[in-house]
Design goal:
By secondary structure, the chain is mainly α. It is built from nine helices and no strands. The protein has one domain: Ferritin (Up-down Bundle). Helix 6 packs parallel to helix 8.
Length: about 250
């Protein structure tokens, strides 16, 4: 894994980051905007964690690769930046940040259950489902500031998924085919379960924009297929730019 590349990427991505145009007059608060605010507040909570357990485990598991651990810390900081943006957006939609929710607690318990690689796996699944969610928001939301926020988040999430895909591809290179097959089966099962939970929690907000469950599943599956395709492709050192680009 070319961790030096990823460390440079996350360091560079911290600089001169654009902001949504917060000065744009807000639209009137409606039932739809309140549903969106409720939904986005759950994402805001999920992205506000400090990743302490993950980083502790990663520094032990990948002690021979400090650049990876440093890049992982910057990845977490980027997720916290998303939480900041969402926190600023919520009052505009008639909402406010929350301090806890059952879906956040569920994902936290699951991802910390079996060590750093399992936690990374659950984080990737959340990123894939979240990307599908933000794509629908980007296409259908009326508030231009929300659309701009989606643009910023999606640009980051594409690189986040590529970063984690390269980590898993490097790990899987040391596995037997039967081990990779077993991993793929459980990953897919967890992904489908997570997509169901996300729709249960956020379906009302997406429906208020005219989106269907089928629309969300299509977007989430599209991201899963893109991610999974990367695991079977070589990622030679110095060539992470060869990773496929989401469209």
């Amino acid at each position: 894994m070319n961790t030096k590349y990823w460390l440079r990427h996350f360091q560079k991505n911290r600089l001169n980051r654009p902001e949504p145009d917060w000065e744009t007059p807000p639209l009137p608060v409606t039932i739809t905007s309140r549903l969106l605010a409720r939904s986005l507040s759950h994402f805001q909570l999920g992205e506000s964690g400090d990743g302490r357990c993950l980083l502790t485990d990663a520094r032990y598991r990948y002690a021979d690769d400090p650049d990876y651990c440093a890049a992982l810390a910057l990845f977490i900081a980027e997720e916290q930046e998303h939480a900041r943006l969402l926190g600023r957006l919520l009052p505009r939609l008639g909402g406010a940040p929350i301090s806890r929710h059952w879906t956040h607690g569920l994902f936290r318990v699951i991802r910390q259950a079996l060590g750093v690689n399992f936690e990374l796996q659950v984080l990737v699944i959340a990123e894939l489902a979240g990307t599908g969610y933000y794509r629908l928001m980007q296409r259908h939301a009326a508030d231009p500031v929300l659309v701009q926020l989606c643009d910023l988040v999606l640009a980051d999430e594409r690189h986040h998924v590529d970063f984690h895909a390269e980590r898993f591809a490097a790990n899987h290179a040391e596995w037997l085919p039967i081990e990779r097959g077993a991993w793929a089966a459980q990953f897919q099962a967890l992904f489908l379960a997570a997509v169901g939970v996300v729709w249960l929690d956020h379906g009302n907000a997406l429906r208020s924009l005219g989106c269907t469950r089928r629309d969300f599943l299509r977007e989430a599956r599209r991201e899963w297929i893109r991610f999974f395709g990367q695991l079977s492709r070589p990622h030679p050192a110095g060539a992470p730019g060869a990773l496929p680009v989401s469209v």
